[in-house]
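quick one before i forget lol
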Amino acid sequence: TGGTLKINLFADKAPNHVARIKELANSGFYDGIVFHRVIDGFMAQTGDPTGTGSGGSGQNIDAEFNDVAHLRGILSMARSQSPNSADSQFFIMLADAPHLDGQYTAWGEVVEGMEFVDAIPKGPSGNNGIVPEAERASIVSMRVIDDE
């Protein structure tokens, strides 16, 4: 949507997830990947190279559930019903969702540029927020530029 996000990583809360996100980001994995599922007032999901919601990098990460509340701006890993099924897909919270606390691995927080997340096109509520392909926003480039 034409802007830069700055994200604070929670290496102390989810060290394995942060390490994997950094590895994927710095390899260019996320470049060009779309936000395929965006639910107004809830979250924006990305990280699937197929854009279908069922793809990933091919490497699952064991859950690192933590005490980070799923508040607006938090980044957390998407997964299937299995707690240890997170891969490359993640979501950014558009609003607070306390029912997710302790169920998904939170690994970062948007500290600058949330207005660009808010501008990501939403999918229809009747289709579980799946954004029509022609309307999808994408990640232009995702890199870890400061490791502190």
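fyi The chain has a mean pLDDT of 94.
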